[in-house]
Design a protein that fits this description.
Blueprint lengths: L2 H5 L13 E5 L3 E3 L5 E4 L3 H7 L4 H5 L4 E3 L5 E3 L4 E6 L15
Antiparallel strand pairs: 1-6, 2-3, 4-5
């Protein structure tokens, strides 16, 4: 049983990250009809152990960057998005219609 099931969540709990950054990591892969994983964008196991291609490595993303405030971030294969923990998506984007 996890915390939410046991106690409920009202977003006033003290365990929520309220400062700093969240790095979102994606694993992009195909799965066949039998549930077997066939292709992987990162291809970590085959890349590291067998010398096969990793598209992530081929594209050459930076492994480290610094923000204008001086924070340094280390990145790993699959890291796509960096969020400020104390900001909202709606601060940058909003939905709407073109008609």
């Amino acid at each position: 049983m996890d915390y939410a099931d046991k106690y409920g969540v009202d977003y006033d709990e003290d365990f929520w990250l309220t400062d700093g950054y969240i790095i979102v990591n994606f694993t992009i892969e195909t799965v066949d009809p039998d549930g077997r994983h066939r292709l992987s964008y990162i291809n970590a196991g085959n890349h590291l152990n067998n010398g096969n291609c990793s598209m992530w490595t081929m594209e050459g993303p930076p492994l480290q960057k610094s923000s204008y405030k001086g924070s340094t971030f280390s990145f790993y294969a699959g890291d796509f998005i960096l969020y400020y923990a104390n900001k909202r998506m709606s601060n940058d984007y909003e939905s709407g219609a073109i008609y």
